[in-house]
Request: fold
Amino acid sequence: MPTTIRFLGHSCIEIKTGEYNLLIDPFLTGNPMAPCSAEEMNPDFILVSHGHSDHLGDAVEISKRCDATIITNYEIHEWLAAKGVKSHGMQPGGGFNFPFGRVKLTLAFHGSSLPDGSYGSTPVGFLITTKDGHTIYDAADTSLFGDMSLIGKEGIELAFLPIGDNYTMGPDDALKAVQRIHPKKVVPIHYNTFDLINQDADLWAEHVKKATDSEAIVMKPGDKIDL
Ligand code: NI
Ligand code: MN
Reply:
């Protein structure tokens, strides 16, 4: 069974690996780019990179309906636990072996307040190694940072990088990130959802093609790729 990736708009990514279904940053309700509704999702695990509503999204509702465990930072885990939501708290640099594979939280430079103003601690990215051996890095919302080179040393098969600018890396820094991470494949995320983050992803992919050995794949919401 291959590991299958489906892009669901903005930063929402579905990963089917083995018998498990993962959902990252499930912002579907209110997301103008979402190709499907939160009610259609049926994950076993939900990964939440930080507390902002365009990432936490529908996580609470989906978790309760599907009995899915939310993997996130420790402070968001505590906020979820107080609501009776099943979650697993971690911190940057920490990894844990889940039934589908290993997740390590990576650094991300951004904010992380929760929708009710609660403290959401430091935002994170995800380094995921599936049981069938695929290594996926989702940088989530972040600036460019030099230690992406260290993440690249893990041997990244597929990277998700924000290109939207304003709130995260823009196209130029995302290209520099590709040059530090050296992923086999890279998919741009976090753009065109709102006017403030409009970008030409096809042009960015051309720049990646010219300047790196990585294959840039522009996924439209709903598109799938097999690893
Ligand atoms: Ni954010
Ligand atoms: Mn965001």
Observations:
- The helical segments are 53-56, 59-66, 74-81, 148-152, 171-181, 201-211.
